[in-house]
Amino acid sequence: MIYALAAIGALTIAVLMWKAFGPQIASPPARRAPVAPDDDPEFLRKIAEEQRKNKRPTDEDGGLK
């Protein structure tokens, strides 16, 4: 009986050592989740620049009338 418990203990230790120090499984590269356009800072910056370019001044001299 003691030999059976020793065998189970040795097998358990062997499995734990294999998990800890055995060959490492390469994990797949992390994939970025798709970003919606309204959450993408680069997209929002481009839109803001386009709006500034297309903005027409309502008053030529910039002062109040």
From TrEMBL:
Residues 27-65 are annotated as: Disordered. Residues 42-65 have a biased composition (Basic and acidic residues). This is Uncharacterized protein. It comes from Saccharopolyspora karakumensis.
